[in-house]
């Protein structure tokens, strides 16, 4: 963790040593362990808060994800129903057109057959 902080501030080893000497001179050797403990507690609390926020975000995104998946299933089901309805209606129309087409063919070939029969009789 300290390495990440140091990299964030771009602090090298020599610079860190100077900062520690200044802290030692300002606060003294008696208060230095107390300050280190407080700093450790602060870092721990920051980590804890960060992980809590991360868990909360994960929990909320999972909740939203499950709602979206449920709605997607409903929509897919509705689309399937509409598709089946369209397929059924399309088949009915095709059958009706086939039937009408057959009737037209019968009616148009029937007069030709009568004409052929009349011509053959002459």
Question: In terms of topology, how is this protein built?
Answer:
Elements: H1 2-9, H2 13-121
Provide an overview of this structure.
The chain is mainly α and 122 residues long. It has one domain. Helices cover 96% and strands 0% of the residues. It has two helices and no strands. It is rod-shaped, with a radius of gyration of 43 Å. The model has no long low-confidence stretch (mean pLDDT 84).
- The tally of structural domains comes to 1
Rounded to an integer in angstroms, the radius of gyration calculated over CA atoms is 43 Å
Structural class: mainly alpha
Strand content: under 5%
Provide the helix percentage.
Answer: over 70%
Number of helices: 2
**pLDDT averaged over residues:** 84
**Which residue ranges are poorly predicted, with pLDDT under 50 across at least 5 consecutive positions?**
none
Looking at this protein, list some descriptive labels.
122 residues, mainly alpha
Summarize, please.
The chain is built from two helices and no strands. The chain is mostly helical.
